[in-house]
Design brief:
With 157 residues, this protein is of the alpha+beta class. It has one domain. It contains three helices and five strands, in the order E-E-H-E-E-H-H-E. Strands 3-2-1-4-5 form a five-stranded antiparallel beta sheet. The radius of gyration is 23 Å and the shape is elongated. The two termini are 42 Å apart.
Length: 157
């Protein structure tokens, strides 16, 4: 399970929204002065990301928590987002190129481009359906693992 610290910013209807900070390893790297990634990280600053997480703990706004997501879910999601559309683009382009040769079309480049773009569109359409299907799947959702701090003060009478 991959873990990250976060702060609760909203609690409503069984959903918890947390805010996480973008992390970069650039501060600890010796080559950060000449690195483009370090420059980009400095230019973008420390932006915060809001994430909906599942929680069975009673939380309040301001609580610091540790959230986690399964490695399998992260890998499958990354492959869906990055690999499927690109593979569909390449497959469409290949079909266009081979089809043009097979059917003796004069412009194989045009067929390759058109079918490549159609493949990319098909990959993006599949991705949209995939994300709708896993939106409420507990295996793909980040969860609150534990609370680190409570915002309220305890008073004794």
């Amino acid at each position: 399970m991959l873990e990250e610290e976060a702060r609760v910013v909203q609690v409503e209807n069984g959903e918890v929204w947390v805010e996480t900070g973008r992390q970069s390893a650039c501060a600890s790297c010796g080559a950060s002065k000449g690195c483009g990634t370090a420059a980009l990280s400095k230019a973008l600053g420390q932006r915060r990301n809001r994430v909906r997480v599942l929680s069975e703990l009673p939380l309040q706004v301001g609580d610091r928590v540790v959230i986690g997501i399964r490695e399998r879910a992260l890998v499958r999601g990354s492959l869906a987002v990055y690999a499927v559309p690109i593979l569909m683009l390449l497959a469409g382009g290949l079909v266009g190129e081979l089809g043009a040769r097979q059917f003796l079309w004069d412009n194989s480049e045009l067929a390759s481009m058109v079918l490549g773009l159609a493949g990319l569109g098909g990959g993006l359409w599949w991705l949209k359906r995939f994300t709708r299907r896993i939106r409420n799947d507990r295996d793909f959702q980040p969860v609150v693992l534990r609370r680190l701090a409570v915002t309220g003060f305890i008073t004794t009478g």
